[in-house]
Amino acid sequence: MTRQSGIGRLFHVLRAQQFDRPLLDHLCDLTTLIRKVAKTREGLNFLRSLLSHKRVMLYFTQPSTRTFLSFENACHILGVQTSEIRNPATSSEYKGESSEDAIRTFSSYVDMIVMRTNVEGLADQTARHLDETERPVPIINAGSGRDQHPTQALLDIYTLHRSFEHRGGIDGKTIAMVGDLARGRTVRSLSYLMKNYRDVKLIFIAPPSLAMRDDLKQFLDKRQIDWSEHDNLEDVVPRADAIYMTRLQDEHDVAGESRQLDLTNFTFHYRFLERLGPEAIVMHPMPRRDEIDRRVDGDPRAVYWRQARNGMWTRTSILANIFAVDDAILERL
Ligand code: CP
Question: Staple 196 to which of 21, 207, 265, 287, CB 3.0 to 4.6 Å?
């Protein structure tokens, strides 16, 4: 089997809006196939042979555990060599070099740059700048300020897709997003991706000061995606197919103002499991604090650890698509 005609080939991955349904379905199928192939030593050797001629730079100037490690391991699964900068104090930016010059320098050495930054729009700006140079390489946005985290949204879609595989898929589902929605880039990117699914209902549950921002609500209105707001998670639990919890993003506070908020109504308490549908799921992009009772972890409907692991496989399939080895993987079917 090869990639069907009409399914796109990614170059830069900058924002969730760039994805269409055929490409999302393709990436989900490819991710499942990669997981299957990787179950045997022979399959792993095959995957590792595909991109041993490629090099990827992991440029993470904002803290990360999951995104960094899952990208690094996704690279290694496909045989890609990696280099990294995680602390700008170890880069010549410390000596006053602009990030534009620093990234152009990286592009001389590698075939792709995966970047996490606290600067909104920097990944887009970098991609535009590199496109004008003699060696444009793909830029992958691995989280940009309060703005977007498109590869997280792709792994979230994969987790939803797998969870609802035998229930008609993501179409028609009700997804509750809870917590710091104003500054949570994961919920923003996932909401943008909902343009690709039919009859999805989004319920935003946040304290008024952390409500989903208007630009995203306007996007949903334009796409006729049903959304509503609520101020207490408990009331919403019985009617949600997926509950997507998020933590307080107080690293964006000016003076610790959000730490004063009472988050009781935005916490998944243990007793909520009784009201949660038997086939509903609880997700979290992680890291978490206290917004999910630890005892929930033992319930099969809590999928956040699986979700984190799906990140590695989804990112492997993104790399496979960008570097055009997805057809070779599909041919193993
Ligand atoms: N979900 C997520 O982006 O986690 P990290 O910050 O650990 O990469």
Answer: 21
